[in-house]
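Researcher: Sequence recovery benchmark, item below. Answer with residues only.
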């Protein structure tokens, strides 16, 4: 049996270095993280086997298997970036820092964004008449960006698309991306496309959820179909050095429960910040380069699962009502992995109209609007968008003041 498992695993190769992967955690059958569905579609629901593996060579943590990108990103994509006010503020300051770094006297700087969604970041460039281009394959959110005047093309990025852009628009000064690079399986092809598009002194600046935070906080819910990779400075360094590019700076971010901003340029074109050496040495101390550390993550994840399920079951047996707060894609992993369904959680409230009236992926908990939460408050609210806790606590002061209790599972399962 064990031999058979090893044999099966050998077909999974690292998407960066093509070496075999070691399996770390098996999360079992999972639906699409953003696959909110109607009752009548339950029988056709899509599931895949969600397992993560690690390559000691590239140091990249990644899904062994994932759904086809077209299944996840289409004309009915459920995540609209602008639903969070705090993220809007974050992207405004991201844009300001990029604009400040651009030489505006130079002949018309050009900025490209990968996965611009509804235009939350690029709108600040459009407002200042800076030449820009958004690449966004999910047409419904891309249309929102177009509506507010953002130049957007609705396609999946690849080296081939980079060639086309190069022909019509030329090279860019900044290639930006937030919470997108970790979604794209053919990452070497993406790196090649970016390399072609970037001017000699240009910069690639992107941010994504950070493996260091996932390990520290046991935030395993960052793992779902769309998040094919969990990056660290070590794995990003390996990836881009393969393509003769280098890390210029690293700036940790608080967004999405702990992210890293990676600043990358063509080799030998920039002064390298001290942050690069410092963060890499912290990662080596944390063991982000080896498999042992991933085994610690595995046991922490298993403990979190047992504790969350037991807590909800205990509260339910005491006759308490429990609701989920925010139908995040992260919560799809939590509910399906921990086997939490409508018998424990009555409903989930979420401010995204497209999710309301639907069922949560896999476990089929009804999604309602935050108004329903206000009208029919539970005894306990399970905080699923823990990365937006400040904003949510601000919105739901009344619930808390009236004695409503919050449950979190990050960094450990507890009642707040
Ligand atoms: N940048 C936004 C959106 C993140 S959600 C933010 O941080 O809020 C991820 C986005 O990546 C989705 O809008 C999805 O459609 C887009 N995406 C997925 N694969 C892509 C690809 N190959 N090329 C460009 N965008 C992609
Ligand atoms: P994210 O964690 O992937 O950013 O998803 C956030 C989800 O939480 C999204 O579906 C919108 C929802 N949400 C609320 O319902 N209320 C809120 O106050 C905030 C900030 C988010």
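Model:
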């Amino acid at each position: 049996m064990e031999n058979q498992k090893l044999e099966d695993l050998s077909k999974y190769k690292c998407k960066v270095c093509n070496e075999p992967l070691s399996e770390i955690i098996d999360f079992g059958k999972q639906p699409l993280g953003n696959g909110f569905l109607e009752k009548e579609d339950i029988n056709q629901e899509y599931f895949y086997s969600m397992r993560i593996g690690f390559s000691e060579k590239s140091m990249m943590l990644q899904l062994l298997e994932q759904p086809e990108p077209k299944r996840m990103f289409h004309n009915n994509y459920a995540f609209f970036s602008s639903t969070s006010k705090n993220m809007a503020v974050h992207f405004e300051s991201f844009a300001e820092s990029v604009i400040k770094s651009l030489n505006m006297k130079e002949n018309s700087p050009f900025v490209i964004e990968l996965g611009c969604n509804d235009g939350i970041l690029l709108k600040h460039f459009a407002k200042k008449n800076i030449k820009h281009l958004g690449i966004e394959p999910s047409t419904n959110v891309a249309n929102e960006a177009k509506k507010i005047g953002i130049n957007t093309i609705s396609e999946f990025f690849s080296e081939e698309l980079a060639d086309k852009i190069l022909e019509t628009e030329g090279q860019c000064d900044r290639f930006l991306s937030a919470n997108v690079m970790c979604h794209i399986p053919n990452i070497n092809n993406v790196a090649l496309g970016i390399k072609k598009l970037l001017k000699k002194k240009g910069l690639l600046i992107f941010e994504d959820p950070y493996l260091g935070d996932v390990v520290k906080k046991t935030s395993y819910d960052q793992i779902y179909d769309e998040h094919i990779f969990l990056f660290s400075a070590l794995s990003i360094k390996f990836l881009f050095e393969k393509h003769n590019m280098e890390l210029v700076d690293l700036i940790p971010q608080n967004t999405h429960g702990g992210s890293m901003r990676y600043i990358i340029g063509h080799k030998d074109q920039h002064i390298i910040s001290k942050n690069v050496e410092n963060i890499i040495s912290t990662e080596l101390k944390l063991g982000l380069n080896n498999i042992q550390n991933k085994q610690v993550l595995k046991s922490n994840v298993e403990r979190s699962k047992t504790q969350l399920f037991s807590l909800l079951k205990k509260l339910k047996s005491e006759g308490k009502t429990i609701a989920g707060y925010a139908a995040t894609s992260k919560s799809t992993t939590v509910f399906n992995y921990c086997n939490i369904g409508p018998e424990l959680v009555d409903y989930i409230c979420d401010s995204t109209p497209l999710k309301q009236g639907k069922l949560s992926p896999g476990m089929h908990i009804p999604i309602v609007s935050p108004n329903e939460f206000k009208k029919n408050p539970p005894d306990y609210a399970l905080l699923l968008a823990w990365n937006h806790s400040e904003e949510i606590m601000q919105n739901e002061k009344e619930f808390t003041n009236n004695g409503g209790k919050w449950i979190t599972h990050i960094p450990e399962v507890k009642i707040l």
